[in-house]
Amino acid sequence: MVIIAEAGVNHNGSIAMALSLIEKAKQVGADVIKFQAYIPGEMVVQENSQYQILKGLALGEKEFFLLQEKCAEERILFLASIFDEKSLALMEKINAPAIKIPSGEITNLPLIKRAAATGRPLLISTGMSTLGEVEAAVLAAEEPGNKRIALLHCLSEYPAPLEKTNLRTIKTLREAFKYPVGFSDHTEGYDAALLAVALGAGIIEKHFTLDKNLPGPDHKLSLTPGEFQKFVLKIRSAEKALGNGRKTITAGEKAVRSAAGKSLVARFDIKKGAAFSEELLALKRPGTGIPPQYLPLVAKARAARFIPKDSLLQWGDFIPEGREENETEGNSINGMQGRLWDL
Q1: Are 268 and 283 in contact (CB under 8 A)?
Q2: Cα separation, 65 vs 163, whole angstroms
């Protein structure tokens, strides 16, 4: 399970705050910290109201080199969403380990092809898109030969209502494209992410801030360091609870099984040489004797010794059908065990 702390633009244009976000993300257990890389003039027309806001939140080339170096120092992976080809070129220049395609760029097929051509792993968020648009994005990424793709289910509302999150889309994306699928979580709280883990998400992304009260577009819906640490612990616990899917008996269950399981028991005193029958046998605790599933076979045998009422039968207590009493006890035991395990 990969947990991404989405810092985005929660540094408010301050490199000092961005570096602090990296330190805190590492401390609270995130595997990756993600920023946003964009050139304001390449991303939005200057007459748009977003331009000045984005310009004030943008970081430059020098700052991104510092962020990458800080991530290496803290041993946390660096990641950035890209919104234009110049920012993609910058990610190549700083040797970013992977590229994030945000939901708003999922129909930007030229950018996706160019990002895929770098050979780096691509994380593609799928908010605000149809399944057909996701398919087009995947095909665009595959065109240069890149198969290192992960898809993130996402609801691009801020905050995203839990009842609209449609987490079963995780399964839909995994079955449709056969790539790893994660969840970019814009809901409040932890529930959606935990459900996503249960549904098989292998990547969880959540907004991260130093302080919810800071000015900026994403702080209020982000988790503080203390909240993010709880978030990580919950995700890790859910991951452990899911296990490996193999049906086995745990060490703890073995003791319970011995106490709570049933064994074959003599319902009455049984004389040596007497033929067993189901009427002579009962099934009672503890489960340390012969298991109940062997009742039909044991009922066809004869008693090798006197068996007191209410005692658990053991492997040496009977002679298998077709055996003579004068056969050695060891042979009787081995023969019966062999036949039972052949079932």
Answers
A1: no
A2: 40
Helical H segments across the chain, by residue range = 15-27, 40-43, 50-57, 61-74, 85-93, 109-116, 131-142, 169-177, 191-198, 225-242, 251-260, 295-298, 329-341
Q: Decide if 109 contacts 153 (C-beta within 8 A).
A: no
Report pLDDT digits (tens) over 252-311: 999 999 999 999 999 999 999 999 999 999 999 999 999 999 999 999 999 999 999 999
The domains of the chain are located at 2-242, 252-341
Strand partners, 182: 152
**Domain 252-341: CATH class, spelled out:** alpha beta
Half-sphere exposure of 76 (CA within 13 A, CB side): 26
How many angstroms from the chain centroid is the CA of residue 290?
39
Q: Give 207-229 pLDDT, tens digit per residue.
A: 999 999 999 989 999 999 999 99
Which homologous superfamily is 2-242 in? Aldolase class I (3.20.20.70)
DSSP letter for each residue of 34-49: EEEE--HHHHS-TTST
Q: Closest by alpha carbon to 127, among 2, 1, 3, 6? A: 6
Lookup result for tokens 């449709």: 176
User: How many angstroms separate the Cα of 137 from the Cα of each of 35, 96, 111, 114, 343?
Assistant: 22, 21, 10, 12, 54
Length reported for the chain: 343
Q: Tell the burial category of 232 from Cβ atoms under 10 Å away from its Cβ (0-12, 13-18, 19+).
A: buried
